[in-house]
Every structure is written in C-alpha cells, then in structure tokens.
C-alpha cells in the first residue's frame, strides 16, 4: 500500500492509474503534450503529406516496385508541384503519360526524364551542367514549365497541357493526361 491514505481508499483501478501516471517519463509526457497541442501548420502539412503519400504509393507501385524509390518520387513530386502551385496528382498523371516514371526516358525528339523536358532549356538558362535524368532537376524544370503554360493560358489546363506537349490546338494529349488523372491519381475532373 502507498503512504497516502486518501489514495489507499480509491478503487484498485484508480490506484493503478495513479501509479501508471507517476511512472510516466516526464520528457515523453512533455513531448506528447507539445505534439497534441501543436496547432502549427507544419504538423498538419506533414500529416497531410504522409496521408497523401501512402494513398499515392499503392497507385505508383505498378510503375515503381521499390518502396523507397516510390516515396522519394512522391515526396519530390509533391514538393515541386506545390512549389509551382500545381496539383501533385496532375503532375503524376503527366509523368505517367510522358515517361511511365522512367527517369532515363528519352523521346524520339530528345526530351528527357520523367517529365520529358527538352534539353535546350538548360542552354537557355545557362545551366548546361544540369542533368535532366536527376529527378529533382527534371521535376523543377517540368513543373515550372507547366505552370508557365497554365498562367499563359489563363488557367486553361487543356491548352496548357497541349502547349507542354507541343500539340497546341489538338486534344489527344490533354485527353491522355485527363484519363490518367481520373483513372489512376485523383478521380473526377481536374
């Protein structure tokens, strides 16, 4: 029995709860208190990102078998898409159509990487040392280019996608991206 006679008169379950509370690591308690009381947006953004990545990982698995590689791709796609103010799911759909997530893909006209970026952009930017097969580089270029075309077309995604592909005035490419988006990444309309 404890030395506290008030505690001794409590039911066994209450005494066990008090004993458990007294055995809790105070640093752990402080950490937990901080976490549950944290209204910082970073916590919610991190939580939302983790939920999103888990949902997208199973969808990406048919293209990328390695789970670590999938998480890397999803983390970078989300980061670069949000940086450019694009829907990450739209970027995933575009990548599916362009390269099927093959970072070493090269088109018949020389476009490279997952987002099939034309290498002339490197020269235009004075960054000829950039490697478009590096995921971070390719996504930064590709998302920036797509956002530029989206702004140029005043938010018309169909026309922006056609510009991205070099098929402005034709619907076949935007339709392929929209189909991938609805079928594999988001569902519904963009």
Question: Overview of this structure, please?
Answer:
The structure is a single chain. By secondary structure, the chain is mainly α. The protein has one domain (about 45-185): Lysozyme (Orthogonal Bundle). It is built from ten helices and no strands. Helix 4 packs across helix 5 (about 65-85), helix 8 (about 135-150) crosses helix 9 (about 155-165) and helix 9 packs across helix 10. Mean pLDDT is about 85; it is low at about 15-20, about 30-35 and about 35-40.
Can you count the beta strands? Answer: 0
Protein structure class: mainly alpha
Overall CATH class: Mainly Alpha
User: How do the helices and strands follow one another from N- to C-terminus?
Assistant: HHHHHHHHHH
Beta content: under 5%
Largest sheet: none
Q: Any idea what the shape is? A: globular
Q: What's the CATH architecture?
A: Orthogonal Bundle
Distance between the termini: 66 Å
On the 0 to 100 scale, the average pLDDT is 83
Name the features.
190 residues, mainly alpha, Lysozyme, 10 helices, 65% helix, globular
Report a brief summary of the structure.
The chain contains ten helices and no strands.
């Amino acid at each position: 029995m404890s030395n506290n006679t008030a505690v001794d008169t409590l039911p066994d379950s209450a005494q066990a709860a008090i004993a458990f509370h007294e055995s809790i690591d105070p640093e752990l308690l402080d950490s937990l208190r901080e976490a549950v009381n944290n209204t910082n947006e970073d916590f919610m953004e991190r939580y939302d990102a983790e939920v999103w990545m888990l949902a997208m990982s199973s969808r990406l698995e048919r293209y990328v078998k390695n789970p670590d590689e999938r998480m890397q791709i999803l983390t970078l796609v989300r980061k670069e898409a949000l940086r450019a103010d694009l829907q990450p799911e739209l970027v995933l759909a575009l990548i599916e159509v362009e390269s099927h997530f093959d970072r070493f893909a090269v088109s018949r006209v020389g476009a490279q990487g997952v987002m099939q970026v034309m290498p002339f952009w490197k020269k235009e930017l004075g960054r000829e040392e950039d490697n478009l097969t590096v995921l971070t580089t390719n996504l930064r270029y590709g998302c920036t280019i797509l956002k530029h075309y989206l702004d140029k077309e005043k938010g018309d995604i169909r026309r922006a996608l056609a510009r991205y592909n070099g098929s402005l005035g034709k619907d076949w490419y935007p339709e392929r991206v929209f189909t991938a988006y609805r079928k594999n990444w988001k569902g519904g309309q963009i």
